[in-house]
Amino acid sequence: MGRKIGLALGSGGARGLSEIGVLLWLKENNVEISCISGCSMGSIIGAFSCVGFTPEHLKKTALDIKWTDIIRYLRLSFSSSSIFNWSRISRFLKENLGDKRIEDMNIPFGCVAADINSGQEVVFKRGKIVTAISASSCIPGVFPPVEIMDRLLVDGELVNPVPIDIAFELGADFVIGVNTCRSLHGRDLYSKTHENSFVKKMDDWFGEMLEKAPTPVAEFYNKLPHPDYDLFDHRGRRFYDVITDSLAIVSSRILDFKRQFAGPHFMVHPDVGAYKNFDFDSAEKIIDLGYKAADEAGLEILNFVSGK
């Protein structure tokens, strides 16, 4: 009986789209995946893959999303618990995944979330897919926690950013991990931002909308301080940048710790550290970086899965 290869897909928001590139490379090179574990964006991509969506379909879906679509999905929550509401994203997930359950997937799947009250890791191997991946993906402060059986669950990045151990629990003998978290290195956290980043486009769009408003409102907006998008430093950070960069610190520490206990695994590191969590309008570049990372490590991956 052949060895079972598991895939552990990490968190990272838009950076997680690079995992689609890795999936494309694995398919092209006939690497059969027996199970998938995921965290945050990795849980979403993993769930779609386990249900039966091909890497090509996932890539097309990602490329079809325009930055104006992202604004439509990121509905302001107007609550004290988060910036954005998850309802429209949940609707998108349900439109594609329906009411399917994890135990009915084509291949075994699991994802992780964090209990914000106890700090415990919560692993989903059963139950409704959309509920599980929503809990795994809700960045605390950015999206509201998901309440399940009196537990408030948030982004699994807080406890297990690349859940290699869960892939072993699902039956894998060897695991390929994809780390799309931002590292602690200055090049990643403080690099020059992209001129056409989603955040800048959203800010420009919001300004254009307000300029159509009555003159006093437009004048007030134009007097507000706006970040210098040419320099990505603490002065240009938004509230959600502070949150996601803080998660990067947590993720790096956790990955360093868990590496000591992981079984036989190979980690792919797409060079996506300069991208932010909401840079979905850079999908093509990010996916290509995932493919490139897998291709550059191709011989090592093939040797690893064959046991050489």
Question: Would you kindly provide a written description of the structure presented here, covering whatever features stand out?
Answer:
The protein has 308 residues and is an alpha/beta fold. Helices cover 44% and strands 14% of the residues. It contains 13 helices and 10 strands. The chain has helices at 18-28, 41-51, 55-64, 67-73, 87-97, 129-137, 164-169, 186-189, 198-211, 215-223, 239-258, 283-296, 298-306, and strands at 5-9, 35-39, 75-76, 84-85, 109-115, 121-124, 146-148, 151-155, 174-178, 265-268. The strands form 2 sheets. Strands 1, 2, 5, 6, 7, 8, 9 and 10 form an 8-stranded mixed β-sheet that branches. Strands 3-4 form a two-stranded antiparallel ribbon. A hairpin with a 7-residue loop joins strand 3 (75-76) and strand 4 (84-85). Helix 1 (18-28) runs antiparallel to helix 3 and helix 2 (41-51) packs antiparallel against helix 6 (129-137). The two termini are 17 Å apart.
